[in-house]
Every structure is written in C-alpha cells, then in structure tokens.
Description:
The protein is α+β, with helices and mostly antiparallel strands and 309 residues long. The chain has helices spanning 2-35, 41-44, 59-70, 99-112, 130-158, 161-185, 191-221, 227-259, 265-292, 297-307, and strands at residues 38-39, 46-52, 75-78, 84-89, 121-128, 188-189.
Amino acid sequence: MKSINLTGHLTQWRYACSAISILLMIMSLTIIGVKGFNWGLDFTGGVVTEIQLDKKITSSELQPLLNAAYQQDVTVISASEPGRWVLRYADIISTDMNTADAEQSHVDIQQVLAPLHTEVQVLNSSIVGPQIGQELAEQGGLALLVAMLCILGYLSYRFEWRLASGALFALLHDVVFVLAFFALTQMEFNLTILAAVLAILGYSLNDSIIIADRIRELLIAKPKLSIQEINNQAIVATFSRTMVTSGTTLMTVGALWIMGGGPLEGFSIAMFIGILIGTFSSIAIGTSLPEFLGLTPEHYKEQVIADTP
C-alpha cells in the first residue's frame, strides 16, 4: 500500500514539474523575444588593447577611470603576467583609422590613466570589426544547430521516437532557459557563454540518456507494468547516481565561479544554471513526455521481435 502511495505521489510530482517546465519555457521564449541579448564584443566588434603598468595597480583602480573616459563598461582582464592588462571596449574609433589615429588612441589611454601616476606602455591594439562579429554569431548559431541535429540523429537511432522526444525536448528546455536568464539579466553574451551552452547540451544529454536507458530496459524486462510505474522505477533506480554526478559537477563549477574571477563568471553561471535545470528536466520532462505521447511496453516488444533473427 505504501509503495502504491509513493508511486502515485511521484507521478503527480512529475506531472506538476512538467507543467511548470512548460510555463517556464513559454516565459523564457517571451523574455528572449522582448529583451534580446546584450551581445559582447565577440559579436558586435570593438577594440582590444593590451597595456603594461606597475605591478601594484589593480583592476579596481583601472575600471572607474576607463569607464568614465570611454563612457561604457570596459572589460579589464589580467593577462599572462603581473602588471599586464587586456582592455576590451566598444569601438569608438573609426575602423578605417590611419597610423596617426592609432597613435592618438594610445595617447588617450595614457591620459586616461594619468591619475595613477605610473608609466603606461601600450603593447598592442587591435580592432574587431562588426562584420567579423556577425560572422562569429552566424558560426556560433550554426554550431548550435549542427550539435542539435547530431543529437537528434543519435537519439533517433538509439531509442524509439517517443522516448527520444523526451530527451530532445529536455535539451531544448535547458538551452532556452539559460538563454532567457542572460536576456533577462542583460549580462554580456559572448563566445564563452556560447561555449557554456554547448557544454550544457552534452551534460544534459548524458543525464537524459541514463534515465532513458533504464526506462528502455524496464519496458523490455517488465512488459506487464504500466508506463507510469516503469517511469517511476527508472527515476528511483537512477536518482542516487544523478544526484552524485550533478552534485560533484556543481561543486566544481561553483569553485570555478568563486575562484575564476570576472572572465569566467558568465561561463560559470551558465554552467551552474544549466546543470541544475538539466537535472530537473531530465527527470521530469524526459520521462513525462514519452508517457503523454503514448509510449507502452508493446513498442519495445515489437522492436525485440523484429530484431530477433
């Protein structure tokens, strides 16, 4: 009797979480459509300047001076050695500037940092044009599309389409949710964030496949059970492994978030959210959608008969 109650509660929990996920996905798509993304310099183009200063100067001293002078948020990244900094900001200089203009831009930086009373040496300065940024955006979108198509082909080959649809929809849910977070917060969206989204695809897929594999085994081994019971047993059987894997990965990403500093903050946040929502969607959506699509033990029973020589 207790087992029946537990099964009923778990089924209700899955259905409720699936409904919440659908609402979140609709809200996420709305946020992305309304607010859009705060594209980083990787996509919009801009200026990248590397300078050498006194080793005692910190980023907290550089940032206010640069932000006020260029009237924008200048990204200040520590380079390979102490005292060397990489500055990234939107292009306020014409892309077809000549050598004299380039020298003037160096003088401007020296004047901006004059209150620090230290020698400023400009090591190099380069401009990323908007056209290059557009090409990066197109290539990044193409990479995301190719990854999704490859995943779709793999899932279609490995699982019956109803079971594969749950894993695929969970992947879409995770990606859309992470993108909506960056649209809502207007954090800079750059190539590092795009790399995190691709990493989330792989992580979430792995989690979904583990549960889907267990469901397939139970469909074949216990054809008399209802699909609700099979899904619940699959979740219970894989829950501890899922929690251990997600927990240890979150600890690693959390350490990266805390210790990685500003350059890795966006990547760490994206991965942290992706792992949390990926674990949630793999359990809730990955099992409930095939059930709603009418997956039954008979589908895999037919497949086993067809594969038998």
